[in-house]
Amino acid sequence: MDDVRRGEAVLDGDEAEHLTRVLRAETGQQYEICDGARLYLGEIVEAHKHSVRFRIVQELEVAEPAVRVSLLMSLVRFERFEWGIEKATELGAVRIVPVHADRSEKGLDLAARKRVERWRKIARAAGQQSRRVHVPEISPPMAFREAVEDSATRRFYLEETPGCPLLLNAILALPERQRGEAVAVLVGPEGGWTDRERALLASAGWVAVSMGPQILRAETAAIAAVAVLVQSW
Questions:
Q1: Gap between the Cα atoms of 201 and 147, Å rounded
Q2: What's 131's domain CATH number?
Q3: The Cα angle at residue 133 between residues 129 and 137, in degrees rounded to 5
């Protein structure tokens, strides 16, 4: 949706065509619309195949997220990575970072740089479907050493080795949880972490946690972790 100007907003392109052709939108119908920063109730005043014009009826209140979750996800095959982006967006992640881990498949980091715009479109579509006002930031691919320096106040990484506490238990054991604080969760690639990576994570103060005894695919573990974090706050 374009910026709201003089009490009106225009939706165009494929999104307008979906609204008119698939949803059969007509003049006089009202929809919740957003410009990427604010949420409005808008009434259609003109509806054409490639352009829909709205009159702003009122601005709506937007609830701030209870926790700001950053998902740092090691690169895996792109169809699975993209599924993870879609679901993490629906669940409420505010930032998604592709990470090149030691055991990420060779060449994925270079190919990923050409996919960032596509991933942003996937996140935008998922955000619209889930009625999110703010679409998560999709960062360019990041080297593991750089990802380890993330500035979130709480930082967890998923670990398969026995003895790690469940993510939920680790959260519940925190002395306090502040509304709106930044939390990061780092998910490894197929094959898990190397000893080098574990050493870097430990020295940087990341907390190792588990999603349970089952061995999960990376994208499954990622969305499960995001869901636990969002609900725990």
A1: 10
A2: 3.40.1280.10
A3: 90
The single-letter code of the amino acid at 83 is: W
Q: In the structure encoding, which two tokens stand for residue 24, read together?
A: 């059969």
Read off the CATH number of the domain in which 28 is found. 2.40.240.20
Compute the C-alpha angle 50/52/54, nearest 5°: 165
Residues 193, 36: Cα–Cα separation, whole Å: 36
Q: How many CB atoms lie within 10 A of CB 226?
A: 26
For 112-157, the pLDDT digits (tens) are: 999 999 999 999 989 888 888 889 999 999 999 999 999 999 999 9
Alpha-carbon distances, residue 121 vs 27, 60, 111 (angstroms): 28, 25, 17
Number of domains within the chain: 2
Total-model pTM: 0.84
Q: Which domain holds residue 48?
A: 8-60
Q: 232 — phi, psi (to 5°)?
A: -70, -25
